[in-house]
Write a structure and sequence with these properties.
CATH class: Mainly Alpha
CATH topology: Transferase(Phosphotransferase), domain 1
Pfam family, one: Pkinase
GO molecular function: ATP binding; protein serine/threonine kinase activity
Number of helices: 12
Order of helices and strands: EEEHHEEEEHHHHHHHHHH
Domain Protein kinase: 1-240
Number of domains: 1
Keywords: ATP-binding, Kinase, Nucleotide-binding, Serine/threonine-protein kinase, Transferase
GO cellular component, one term: nucleus
Number of strands: 7
Radius of gyration: 19 Å
């Protein structure tokens, strides 16, 4: 956590060790205080029988992606447990911070990792298939699940067990092709799956949603990890164009939280035309 310094990642203020009566050693982290979680905010709207306003879905998803672009590209870390409970939010400014790096890991190509990771509803299919050589694309699958949950008002894939989780995914995305299974875990290509057709996204969400919202969800929720959009690609998606408009305000009339204060490290190696798409003129 010492390595992480970003406006969308919870800051480590201090740490200390303590021992229990049984002489167990504990590491205690003192983190900056952020009062709410995306999970609690979404539940408040649910209780009132309302959907989370689209501007908040945009703000939260964008800031998750910006934080992931930083940890994936600048630090080389995979979070491995992105879920609404691990995303903190300030209810006044709507600045968001990712927390709980207890499962985070530097993924090294060729080195195996445990597949039983990530909370069930947000677990990428390659993890359910037991893949041990996965990539940071697992975090983008989780982000797609969080975004879909904010749009739907409930989890998109509410599996009751690991296997049931896969069933829930297949009910929406349809049966993975042999090629897609190979991309997730080559050991399962001969496995016989029930043939189910994909459910169109406009029927999944029912409610009238902008096509850009469904397009972005579909880019996150691809069976093949290599076909998922990266965090930086997601930040440039047209779904977030409203956030780049200098006239956009929060529903309470306040200005948007800082979204474009990219450091040189974040934009390292990114072509100028991409930076132009990423940082609106008024923020340059």
């Amino acid at each position: 956590m010492h390595m992480l310094d970003h406006p969308n990642i919870v800051g480590l203020k201090h740490y200390f060790f303590s021992t229990t009566e049984r002489n167990e050693l504990y590491l205690n982290l003192v983190l900056e205080f952020v009062p709410e979680t995306v999970n609690r905010m979404a539940r408040q709207y649910n209780r009132m029988n309302q959907r989370v306003p689209l501007i908040y879905v945009k703000l939260y998803t964008y800031q998750i992606c910006r934080a992931l672009a930083y940890i994936h590209n600048c630090v080389g870390i995979c979070h491995r447990d992105i879920k609404p409970q691990n995303v903190l939010v300030n209810p006044h400014t709507h600045q968001l911070k990712i927390c709980d790096f207890g499962s985070a890991k530097v993924l090294v190509k060729g080195e195996p990792n445990i597949s039983y990771i990530c909370s069930r509803y947000y677990r990428a299919p390659e993890l359910i298939f037991g893949a041990t050589e996965y990539t940071t694309a697992i975090d983008l699958w989780s982000t797609g699940c969080v975004m879909a949950e904010l749009l739907l008002g409930q989890p998109l894939f509410p599996g009751e067990s690991g296997v049931d989780q896969l069933v829930e995914i297949i009910k929406v995305l349809g049966t993975p092709t042999r090629e897609e299974i190979k991309c997730m875990n080559p050991n399962y290509t001969e496995f016989k799956f029930p043939q189910i057709k994909a459910h169109p996204w406009h029927k999944v969400f029912q409610k009238k949603l902008p096509p850009e919202a469904m397009d972005l969800v579909s880019r996150f929720l691809q069976y093949s990890p290599d076909l998922r959009c990266t965090a930086m690609e997601a930040c440039m998606h047209p779904f977030f164009d409203e956030l780049r408009d200098p006239n956009t305000r929060l529903p309470n009339g306040r200005p948007l939280p800082p979204l474009f204060n990219f450091r040189s490290q974040e934009l390292n190696g990114i072509p100028p035309e991409v930076v132009e798409r990423l940082v609106p003129e008024h923020a340059r």
